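BUG: 3D viewer hangs when loading the predicted structure for this chain

Environment: internal workstation, default settings.
Expected: structure renders.
Actual: progress bar stalls at 90%.

Input used:
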Amino acid sequence: MTTQPSSDLATFENPRPGRDFTIRIDIPEFTCLCPLTGQPDFAKLTLEYVPNKLCVELKSLKLYMWVFRERGAFHEAITHEILDHIVAATAPNFMRLTADFNVRGGIYTKVIAEHRNPEWKVPELINLP
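Structure tokens produced before the viewer hung:
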């Protein structure tokens, strides 16, 4: 089993194509570096998506997240970069990445970025009694 960071995101076929369902992945130990001070930034990432044909494989996602540990990046930029990479690998119907960064200088930052497949029809919300 490799323990080295990797930019490669592995995928597998959606086990239920044609059925909309949500996959929610919590990544509570994301780290990167402040591009100005070099100090570590810590965040909880939440990835939510409605797959189309492919799903992201979790071990490769873990190794992918390690790539950022020694990289300096602004919160906004790194959130969009991660979303773009996972979207490129999986081509989902919908994907949302929420990056909830720990306090730094008395300020909390939460960045939410989304992708929508323009050909996907959002299912109608059903409210049960």
